[in-house]
Design brief:
This protein is of the alpha/beta class. Helix content is 36%, strand content 15%.
């Protein structure tokens, strides 16, 4: 919601379409259209894209914030003995497979003469080079796969979507239901408020050029190794 609230404060925003996985969020703003969808169902994603296509002729900014670190019955694995292939598959479905499914479904709306930007939230723990601690098998692997898929899309788009840029973003640690169980009083990294996180990420996006496509950046705009 913080990203949405930030965007709605911008006077140059003409239309904002929110794809959400439940009916819990409502916005009292005529510029907002809410489309519900199932992030794990290709047919639902395609239907959502068709709904958006009936409302607008092109999309200039798409931000994918869907991700899963833990759910009821699934927690990040601290040790290999905790690994469950079923949990890995679920993590891949949400954290990796959703991105190409989204840009495939919305590809036509992102191909136009004006600049288009796709940003997808990743995580530093998805960096293979930066993996100095181990653990979190399913989450790490699914985010690494997300990054590979994004970079592969970027290569294809240099031909098919010449005006589009696609990047992976690491938002840092944010006070949210996703990270809250893992933030203790002794946590040493900076913990951002959702509002600060939104401001940081949109600031990074505003400074990107075409050469940035296929890159992996943190909330400060610094490149993260793959």
């Amino acid at each position: 919601c913080a990203l949405i609230e930030n965007l709605l404060r911008r006077q140059n925003l003409a239309r904002l379409i929110v794809l959400q996985r439940n009916n819990s969020t409502q916005f009292n703003d005529p510029r907002v259209t809410i489309v519900n969808f199932d992030a794990e169902d290709a047919a639902s994603i395609a239907t959502a894209a068709q709904t958006v296509q009936e409302a607008v002729s092109r999309v200039h900014l798409m931000i994918n914030t869907v991700g899963m670190l833990h759910t009821d019955g699934q927690q990040p694995e601290k040790r290999l003995k905790d690994f469950d292939p079923a949990n890995l598959q679920r993590s891949f479905a949400i954290n990796a497979a959703l991105l190409p499914a989204l840009v495939k479904a919305f590809g036509g709306l992102l191909r136009h003469p004006e600049p288009a930007l796709v940003a997808s939230l990743s995580a530093r723990v998805g960096s293979i080079e930066d993996n100095d601690l181990g653990g979190w098998y399913s989450y790490r692997a699914s985010k690494a796969a997300h990054n590979m898929l994004l970079r592969t899309i970027a290569h294809e788009w240099r031909v098919s979507h010449r005006n589009a840029v696609i990047v992976a973003l690491h938002p840092g640690t944010v006070h949210s239901p996703l990270s809250q169980p893992f933030i203790s009083s002794g946590y040493k990294n900076t913990v951002h408020t959702p509002a600060d996180c939104a401001e940081h990420l949109l600031g990074v996006l505003s400074n990107l050029t075409g050469e940035a496509s296929g890159g992996f950046y943190d909330w400060k705009g610094d490149t993260i190794p793959w």
